[in-house]
Every structure is written in structure tokens, then in C-alpha cells.
Design brief:
The complex is a heterodimer.
Chain A (H helix, E strand, L loop, with lengths): L2 E2 L10 H12 L10 H21 L6 E4 L2 H15 L5 E5 L4 H12 L3 E5 L9 H7 L4 E7 L12 H9 L3 E5 L11 H4 L3 E5 L10 E5 L25 H39 L4 E3 L9 E5 L5 H10 L2 E2 L4 E2 L5 E2 L2 H5 L4 H5 L1 E5 L6 H21 L14
Parallel strand pairs in A: 1-11, 3-4, 3-5, 5-6, 6-7
Antiparallel strand pairs in A: 2-8, 7-8, 9-10, 10-14, 12-13
Chain B lengths: L3 E5 L4 H12 L3 E8 L17 H14 L3 E5 L1 H17 L6 H20 L4 E3 L4 E5 L5 E5 L16 H5 L1 E2 L7 H10 L20 H8 L8 E4 L5 E5 L22 E6 L4 E5 L6 E11 L10 E6 L7 E9 L2 E6 L12 E6 L2 E13 L1
Parallel strand pairs in B: 1-2, 1-4, 2-3, 4-7, 8-11
Antiparallel strand pairs in B: 5-6, 6-17, 8-9, 10-11, 12-15, 12-17, 13-14, 13-16, 14-15, 16-17
Helix pairs in contact in B: 1-2, 1-6, 3-4, 3-7
Classes of the chains: A alpha/beta, B alpha/beta.
Chain lengths: ~400, ~375
């Protein structure tokens, strides 16, 4: 069995998700909007799942909209706010956000919005004072990730929420990567909108949610029926959300235990690799990182080669983001954090999760060190070709 | 454990069948598609000669069907620096480049090998129609393919002994017809996919591509003159011309005129009648020999091919230096010796080596 260390891309289904899916598949499949009793039963399942997920982030169930995933939630939060707060033309974000934030922002910029993309420090932290300095009465939205998917840096966002509220702007937090890795409370963070994703947590892909505070103003993008409070028309993904709810309940009951386990395993892997790979560098802070995520610069190799070689030897990791054809691109997050293109091209992300075992970590550490030595010997990167950036 | 081979897969039928054959022979096959050409990723669906999403998906489906791992690797920076830049530079210098030869020499059998070795591979393989044979004393021979109509040994002349030793050409002994039949029998999705013909990174007109990439200060405009130096027309860049070209000269004359020479210093394009093109031989640079022991052996009777689609003709080869050679045609008047193009030396079926044409020896 290959060792899976790519939980930040998608976690294997948790047993609770499997059970929920099996129960759903065994039952009928009515539309929760239908009046008959089968429809009412479906609606109960829907609302039960909504309550389970709401419990995980400490909000009212009615404040959650189910979506098709983190990408849709981010699009809805950004376009929905931009279209609701007429006259406000500024959006504040950062240079290290997920493509589903960067994409909508680029579109709004083309429509004339002013987009402020705050640069992180070398560890991927967004300085709060930079956010506060950019904030003004023309600001519609501040949109930031809580934990970065590529390097794991956790942002301290509590200090900015009051100031955002004071200027009348909306505060959106993308918690897709943080959920299940650290305690996440929408209330404590003081945000108006929060993106949640199922498949990073062990629910299937294709289900996500957006928390919408009572204060938030949002114009729907998908129009049609009255589902999800009118914010998102269309019959919801009942199969996915039932699994998402079950997973949320399971995670809520053992978050601390799981996270201390993941932190111990992450540290064990890092220490083993540091011992066997001279010059290995961790990208992201030592403290203040989601403990499952290790972004590492491997000296003297192309990350792309190491990634493929590791896959052939049974360790599944990732690098930056993949293009449509499946080739990997250097991470925009690492570039924004001040790494040069060659360093970014030599970096891989290892992310652990709920099913990772100590035996897997020890075996992975041994395989990674061995494969790194082979790749480093095979492929010199000192000929200068790497410093030249290809157009993407 | 069986030997691991990295197969360069384009998504076409040839490289797919090459991979399938090796898989059937028991090799530990790893399919690699190389992302080479710069491309639009703005959501448009412009036609792409290669490296398109669809091509890579075809290769991926073949890998799934034949049950071996497949990856896409990004070699755009290397391809840009070593193939496309060279292509543009050559045209701007009044020469006619052969990017496929450069790609083989610089990318497929050099950079790809580094990648292959990092994956623990013992060999690289491609879907080229050519043969490699191991002779006495452990020397390797590069030979024409069994399918003469598809033979691609011309593009491979620059392979060294070390490269030949680690290279497999599974299609060297079968015909294109057999390749398609194998693909159909194996149920490969691309069994009837048409051949790619054009230069993979030039979507349309090559002169437009060169002009778009070149620094405008390097585009050399000038005059079109006849053999007596009479000015026939003006042109806005020598990169639009190839020695031997007849069409599209923008010159009206009573008889067909051909480009005889391009003078990059003056930006002058000389045209003439077909018989004025005749050459009795050529000088070649960057010459490499498949077996270096051939060097310095005095005059040698060979056959030479000066364009891929031209037949090989009898000639005499003389090495002038380690990497320079003179080739004299046995029969005078071989037309259109084009600087920048590749000349390849054959002894019957065997590739002895080749080089890049510097200039014609005039008749």
C-alpha cells in the first residue's frame, strides 16, 4: 500500500462518512423540498447534517449554506459581497491565497475593483497592520485564508475583525484547510463569511459550505429555487452533506486527540528528514502552523522529479498546484514568501491526516531520504536552466 | 526485477504502441509526456499542434489501458532556451533550422534521460522509427527503420554511443501499418489518430512566429536581387526565406525563381533559376559521428541526405576537423543545399553521423 501524505489535497473517507453514505444509498432518495413524507425525511437528514456542521464551528445551523465545495463557497463569498455592497470598490486579500480566491479577485479587478494583495513575511504570515492600513470606507471585503494550504501557516486574524466591521466592510475567512486541523470558531474570529470544505476532512469531494452571518449581505450567483435560504438555488448534494455532517460530528468529538497525534507524527517526520537530508529547509513557521503540513525545500533536486520518483516508490505527496494536463507548477505561495523560483521548484508538500500511522511515517522518512539521494545524484540542477522561469 | 524504461509519450499512436510493446515484453514501463511548447491557458480552445490537454489525455488513457504509471513533466523552460530560441536565432541569421533534431539532441535524449535516471530507469524509449544494434566490442550502431517510408534515423544522427546504449526504439522493425494494427488490437484510443506534420510549437505560419518572438532590431529587412545584382523587390525580413524556396517570393518573373542565397549582413536575398541553385557539395559544422573512430580516416564513400524528405545521394565525406566536414556529391548539381538544415551520412542502412549545413560548395 502506498503511503498517502497528501491530505491537504483531499483526505481519505472517514469511516463515519462511509457509514453515512451506505445508509443513504440503502434508503430512498427524495428531494428535501418535496412535501410528501419521503421528502420530509430527506429534509430532516439535511437539517441534521447542517446542525452537525454548525456545531463544529460554533454557529447557528440556519447560518450555513451547503455548496459544492470550497471553490464555490469562495466564489459566492467574493462575488456575492462585491455585488451586494454597491459603491464599495476595494477588496483586501493576500498574495498566498487559494486559486479560488485569486481567480474571482482577478475577475473583479478586470471589472474595475481595486484589489490589495498583501505580501506575507518569510513564514507566510500576513501582517495585521498592513490589513488595517489598507482598510477604508471604500472597502467591500477582506478575504483571507485561516491556514495556508501549501505551507500551513495559521493567520492571527482576530485583531482585524473589529476594524473591518467599523468601516462597514465584510470579513470572509477561507477555513477550508484549517477545519479539523485546529479549533475553528466563526464567532471568536468575528468573521461574516467562512468557507468550509468536506474533502479535506474525510468527507467526499463535491460538498462544502459557506457560513453567512446574520449581518452579511450577499447576492446569490446561482439562481432558481428557494433552497439554502435563497443564497444557493438547486437541490443540495444530499449524499455529500450527510457524509459531511457525520464527519463534522466525529471531528468535533476528537479534535484535540487527533491534532496532538498529527503534531507528534509531523514532528517525527520532520526530525527524521532533517537528520538524513543535509540542507533540508522547512517553509512556514515552526510554531503557528497546522501541525499536519510540512512544506520542505529539498536541496539539489527538482520537486517534480522527486514527486514522481516518490510516487513510483510508494509515497504520495504534492507540489504547488497541477495544471489541467497534470504537470506541476511552482507554488505561488512560496514565491510570495520570498523563495526564488529554483527553491520553489525544489519544494514538496507533505500533509498528514486522520489515518496516518507512526509506522507509515517511519517508512516514509526512510523512502524519502533514499529517493532524494537517487534523484539528487541523477539530475544536476546547477546548469542554470532552472533559474529561467517558464511562462505559465 | 525487470528493467525500468521511461517512454516519451506524445499522445500519438507511435509512442503509444512503443510503450505498449515494451510493456508486453515485460519492461517496467513509466510513461512520460513532456510539456514543451508555450501555450495559451486562458480557457480558449485554440488548435495546438502538440502538448495539448487532449494529447496528454490520450497518452494517459493508453497508460491506463496498458496498466503502467504515467506523468506529465514540465520541460518548457529547457525547450524554450534550447530549441525555440535556436529556431528563432537561425531564421534571423538567414538559416533554416531543424527544431526536431535540436529537440532530440537537447531534450529527449539529454534532459529526459536525467529525469529517467532520477526515476531509477535503465533506459529511455521513444516512438521513433529507427533501429539501434549492438555490434562487436560493445559498439552501438544506429540504423534505418525497417519501414523505409517512415524512417526517422535522420533526426537521430547526433546520438552518442552512451545515448544509444540506453535508448530503445521499439518501432524500428515494424511498419506504420503494423503499428496501427497493434494499436487497434490493443484497443488504444489513438489507433487512427492522424499524424502530426507541422512544427509542434508553431501553430501556423513560422515567419509570423519568428517575427513575434524576435527583438524587432534583429529582424533584417532588405532587397531581393537576381544573380547579376539587379534589385527585383524589397522584403521586410530575411527570416521569411529559405534557400531553395520558390513560392511566396513576391517577385514577378517570366520563369520560376528560387532563393539561392541569403546574406544576413546586408539583408539581401539572392534569387535565381533552378539551375543556378546547383551545388557540388557542402560544408558542415557541429558534426558528430555515431562512432568517433570514423574520424580522420581520409575520404570515405557515403550517401548523404540533406533534408528529411530527400533521398540519400552518393557523396564523398572528408572530415576537416573533429566537428567539421566537407561533403562532395558524386553527381554534380544537387539542388537546394540549405544552410542550417541537417545533413546525415549513411553507409547503406547505417547512420555514420551528420552535422549542420554551413554553406553550399558551388558548382
Amino acid at each position: 500500500m502506498p503511503i498517502y501524505l497528501d491530505y491537504n489535497a483531499g483526505a481519505p473517507l472517514r469511516p463515519e462518512a462511509r457509514q453515512a453514505i451506505a445508509a443513504f444509498v440503502g434508503g430512498g432518495q427524495a428531494n428535501p423540498a418535496s412535501v410528501h413524507r419521503a421528502g420530509q425525511s430527506a429534509r430532516r437528514s439535511l437539517e441534521h447534517a447542517r446542525a452537525q456542521l454548525a456545531g463544529l464551528i460554533g454557529v447557528e445551523p440556519r447560518q450555513l449554506i451547503f455548496t459544492s465545495g470550497g471553490t464555490e463557497s469562495n466564489n459566492l463569498a467574493i462575488f456575492g459581497t462585491a455585488n451586494a455592497l454597491i459603491g464599495r470598490r476595494k477588496i483586501i486579500s493576500s498574495a498566498i491565497e487559494h486559486s479560488s480566491i485569486l481567480g474571482p479577485l482577478a475577475r473583479l479587478q478586470a471589472r474595475g475593483f481595486e484589489i490589495v494583495r498583501i505580501a506575507p513575511d518569510r513564514d507566510g504570515r500576513i501582517p495585521c497592520e498592513r490589513i488595517l492600513r489598507a482598510l477604508d470606507e471604500g472597502t467591500a471585503l477582506v478575504t483571507l485564508g485561516l491556514a495556508n494550504s501549501e505551507v500551513g501557516t495559521i493567520q492571527d486574524l482576530r485583531p482585524v475583525s473589529v476594524a473591518i466591521r467599523d468601516v462597514g466592510a465584510m470579513f470572509h475567512i477561507d477555513a477550508a484547510q484549517a477545519l479539523g486541523r485546529i479549533p475553528v470558531s466563526a464567532g471568536a474570529l468575528g468573521c461574516d463569511l467562512m468557507t468550509l470544505s468536506g474533502h479535506k476532512l474525510g468527507a467526499p469531494a463535491g460538498i462544502g459550505a459557506l457560513y453567512v452571518s446574520d449581518r452579511a449581505k450577499l447576492v446569490a450567483s446561482t439562481l432558481g429555487g428557494p433552497q439554502e435560504g435563497g443564497f444557493r438555488a438547486g437541490t443540495p448534494n444530499l449524499l455529500g452533506l450527510i457524509a459531511f455532517g457525520a464527519v463534522a460530528a466525529a471531528v468535533a468529538s476528537r479534535l484535540d486527540e487527533e491534532n496532538s497525534h498529527m503534531a507528534a507524527l509531523g514532528e517525527r517526520l520532520l526530525q527524521a528528514l532533517v537528520r538524513s537530508i543535509p540542507g533540508l529547509a522547512l517553509n512556514g513557521p515552526v510554531e503557528g502552523r497546522i501541525p499536519n503540513t510540512l512544506n520542505l525545500t529539498f536541496p539539489g533536486v527538482l520537486g517534480e522529479s522527486l514527486l514522481i520518483a516518490l510516487d513510483l516508490d510508494g509515497v504520495e505527496v504534492s507540489m504547488g498546484s497541477a495544471c489541467a494536463a497534470g504537470a506541476v507548477e511552482p507554488s505561488h505561495v512560496l514565491l510570495a514568501m520570498g523563495r526564488n523560483p529554483a527553491q520553489a521548484r525544489s519544494s514538496l508538500r507533505l500533509s498528514l491526516g486522520w489515518a496516518t500511522t507512526e509506522a507509515e511515517i517511519d517508512r516514509a522518512a526512510e523512502i524519502i531520504a533514499r529517493v532524494w539521494r537517487r534523484v539528487a545524484a541523477a539530475e544536476p540542477t546547477t546548469d542554470g536552466t532552472l533559474s529561467r522561469q517558464a511562462p505559465s | 526485477m525487470s528493467a525500468r524504461v521511461v517512454v516519451a509519450m506524445s499522445g500519438g499512436v507511435d509512442s503509444s504502441v512503443a510503450a505498449a510493446i515494451l510493456r508486453e515484453q515485460g519492461y517496467d514501463v513509466v510513461g512520460i509526456a513532456m510539456r514543451l511548447a508555450p501555450q495559451e491557458t486562458n480557457g480558449s480552445r485554440a488548435r495546438q499542434a502538440c502538448c495539448s490537454y487532449e494529447d496528454f489525455e490520450d497518452a494517459r488513457r493508453v497508460a491506463e489501458r496498458m496498466d503502467f504509471p504515467f506523468y506529465v513533466v514540465d520541460l518548457r523552460a529547457e525547450f524554450d532556451a534550447r530549441v525555440i530560441d535556436n529556431f528563432v536565432d537561425e531564421y534571423l541569421a538567414g538559416r533554416t533550422p531543424n527544431p526536431c533534431v535540436m529537440c532530440n539532441r537537447e531534450i529527449k535524449f539529454a534532459r529526459l534521460w536525467h529525469r529517467a535516471r532520477s526515476l531509477g530507469a535503465d533506459f529511455v524509449a521513444t516512438g521513433h522509427y529507427a533501429r539501434v544494434e549492438r555490434g562487436g566490442e560493445g559498439r552501438f550502431h544506429l540504423l534505418r527503420a525497417a519501414d523505409f517510408t517512415k524512417d526517422q534515423s535522420y533526426f537521430l544522427f547526433a546520438l552518442t554511443q552512451a545515448e544509444l546504449a540506453r535508448t530503445l526504439f521499439p518501432l524500428g522493425r515494424i511498419t506504420k501499418t503494423e503499428v496501427r494494427a497493434r494499436a487497434r488490437a490493443l484497443g488504444l484510443v489513438n489507433a487512427d489518430k492522424p499524424e502530426s506534420q507541422e512544427i509542434c510549437f508553431v501553430p501556423g505560419d513560422y515567419a509570423q512566429f519568428v517575427a513575434a518572438r524576435a527583438d524587432p532590431n534583429r529582424v533584417k529587412a532588405g532587397q531581393i536581387v537576381d544573380s547579376e545584382g539587379r534589385v527585383l523587390a524589397e522584403h521586410d525580413g530575411i527570416h521569411q526565406f529559405t534557400v531553395g524556396q520558390r513560392r511566396g517570393l513576391g517577385v514577378a518573373a517570366g520563369e520560376p525563381l528560387y532563393v539561392r542565397a541569403i546574406d544576413p549582413e546586408r539583408g539581401q536575398v539572392t534569387v535565381g533559376r533552378r539551375e543556378e541553385l546547383a551545388a557540388r557539395g557542402l560544408r558542415a559544422s557541429q558534426v558528430s559521428l555515431v562512432d568517433e573512430r570514423l574520424a580522420g580516416a581520409g575520404d570515405r564513400q557515403i550517401e548523404v541526405k540533406i533534408r528529411y524528405r530527400h533521398p540519400a545521394v552518393p557523396a564523398t565525406l572528408r572530415m576537416l576537423a573533429r566537428d567539421r566536414a566537407e561533403v562532395r556529391f558524386v553527381t554534380d548539381g544537387y539542388p537546394a543545399v540549405t544552410p542550417g538544415q541537417v545533413c546525415v551520412f549513411y553507409d547503406r542502412d547505417e547512420v555514420l553521423g551528420g552535422g549542420f549545413i554551413e554553406r553550399a560548395l558551388e558548382a
